[in-house]
Amino acid sequence: MRDNYQVLNNGMAIPTIGMGTYSPENDRRTTENAVKMAIKMGYCHFDTAQIYGSEPALGNALNKAISNSLVEREELFVTSKLWGSNHHDPVSALEQTLNNLGMEYVDMFLVHWPVRLKPWVLNPLPNEEDFDQLDLETTWEGMERCLELGLCRGIGVSNFSCTKIERLLDYASVIPAVNQVEMHPMWRQSKLREFCKDYNIHVSAYSALGGPGNYWGSTAVVQNPIIQSIANKHNATPAQVALRWGLSKGVSVIAKSFSKERLKENIGALDLELEDDDLLEIEQMEQWKIMRGEYYVNQTTSPYRTIQDLWDGEI
């Protein structure tokens, strides 16, 4: 297969460039139009989550494209994620996601964070009283049930450290197919990538450009002088260099843009070739984790008292 697909441990093929659909505004029409443009450009991997609120718009755009014969459902790879308030019942949560999407199944269903919240909490930034007791073993059993019922084709995790995956593997009947984490040239995840490779768990990179435009994101990656200099050398853009770097590491990259130019630019990373000295230069860049998850840490109700607890010292 060409490098625009990677094969997962369950035999599925994941397209290596995906379109993210999180936006602070979550405007339905804007999202639908962007997805429609993306399909016409050749995107077939789309990333959403219950907490993003973008499932209905994404589903509507994809179903219109299917009915207009722009794409077939089997060509699409749709990922959604289990929010913390649904850890007690992943099956019902996924059924709600499928209802939002207007689909019979998703391709990949991920545990969004290793955090359990009370069932009524729909706040992406939970308060102290919103946390519930974490029980990932029961949550993962529910995820495996989703798979058995045919509601998804694969299951995985997101924002899991090596240590958390190792613990999960102690009781999991199904090994996660994917671990979706922050990864870009300034947060390279070399330890996690090596660990996941040992267990044949595919790493998918969110914020592959550093999340510019998000409330927690940064332009530090695309504005980094090393990235800009490599881009100039290849007559490419900084975004293309950052995405191509991720692809060179064997991961899939998720980049969110709703603009036609940027969507085209991002998928153009597939045509860029970086040289060995480019990759060596990137390895010298200072590391900085942008999405730290501070709001999942507190001294009373969270299972994580410190940031180091949340990431098991891998930060």
Brief characterization of the structure:
36% of the residues lie in helices and 13% in strands. The chain has 11 helices and 10 strands.
Describe it.
The chain has 315 residues and is of the alpha/beta class. Helix content is 36%, strand content 13%. The protein has helices spanning 28-41, 55-67, 90-101, 136-148, 162-171, 190-198, 225-233, 238-248, 260-267, 276-283, 307-311, and strands spanning 5-7, 13-15, 17-20, 45-47, 77-82, 108-111, 155-158, 178-182, 202-206, 252-255. The strands form two sheets. An eight-stranded parallel β-barrel has the order 3-4-5-6-7-8-9-10, surrounded by five helices. The protein has a two-stranded antiparallel sheet with strand order 1-2. Helix 5 links the parallel strand 7 and strand 8.
Strand order of the largest sheet: 3-4-5-6-7-8-9-10
- Average of the residue pLDDT scores: 95
- Percent of residues in beta strands: 5-15%
Quote the distance from N terminus to C terminus: 34 Å
What share of the residues lie within helices? 25-40%
Oligomer: single chain
Radius of gyration, in angstroms, nearest whole number: 19 Å
* Apparent shape: globular
Specify the number of helices: 11
Order of helices and strands: EEEHEHEHEHEHEHEHHEHHH
Structural class: alpha/beta
